[in-house]
Amino acid sequence: MKWSEVCIHTTQEAVEPVSNILHESGASGVVIEDPEDLNRDWETKFGEIYELSAEDYPTEGVLLKAYLPVNSFVGESIEEIKEAINQLLVHHIDIGKNKVTVSEVNEEDWATAWKKYYKPVKISSHITITPSWEDYKRVHDEELVIELDPGMAFGTGTHPTTVLCVQSLERHLKKGQSVIDVGTGSGVLSIAAAKLGAANVDALDLDEVAVESATMNVKLNHVDDIVTVRQNNLLEGVGSSPDLIVANILAEVIVKMADDAFATLKNGGKIITSGIIQTKRDLVKGALQSAGFEIDEVVEMEDWLALVAKKPE
Description:
Elements: E1 2-10, H1 15-24, E2 30-33, E3 62-69, H2 74-86, E4 99-106, H3 107-111, E5 121-122, E6 127-131, E7 144-148, H4 160-172, E8 178-182, H5 188-195, E9 200-205, H6 208-220, E10 227-231, E11 244-248, H7 251-264, E12 270-277, H8 281-291, E13 294-301, E14 304-310
Parallel strand pairs: 6-7, 8-9, 8-11, 9-10, 11-12
Antiparallel strand pairs: 1-3, 1-4, 2-3, 5-6, 12-14, 13-14
Helix pairs in contact: 4-5, 7-8
């Protein structure tokens, strides 16, 4: 299905009435691109850090975007929108530049086009990640295949931070050990740990959508007898003492949970942390060492790195 994207360059004062006009014209939702968002304090329920780019916003005014189905009436609807916006001047509402542009987009571009570029990828010595819709055959008997459906914005498992974690799991996880995966997302690290021989894995995430996505992928890979997925805020209230913790999350969140990780791990246990940009290396390293960990390994890929730290015996 094709859609017409209607973009109106207007003012903050006009956002509400213009949005109402767009809704009344048949738009089910409105996208607001306001440069004021760059200065806004965002809620971080799941520990997110928002880094918005000024390049995505107008230098002045506000952009409102709405989507109308392409049909024989769309041209008439757009003219009615323009006329209704102009009528706001009668009510002394500043509509600014009031520049209206229209472009055509294909629904496939939003929903499925990205799948064309998501193909099976060998990310470590033993593990290959393949999308669930690909009919992939193992190249050799020792190859471990993870089928993954990224779900809602949880990645394809091929980002450098995920690759670093999986490769570190291969080196440090011993068969029969217990694992906690903090911030599991799509569940890929939990699945990798199970396929590499973990006896049991707790996959934790605060986001209920992530829990659903990970649960689906765990079942898809037939490791639900090893991996337990549940909603949890980092390591709060975790009763078990695992041999290994893996956390592919933001550097600031790793710093926040360093003490809890040290207290939770068994003596001699290890933590694998990634999601760390090069500029945050010393921040995370310092937090782990302050908690009592000994840095065991630092591995890098592109602008990212993973730290492996050990709790003394």
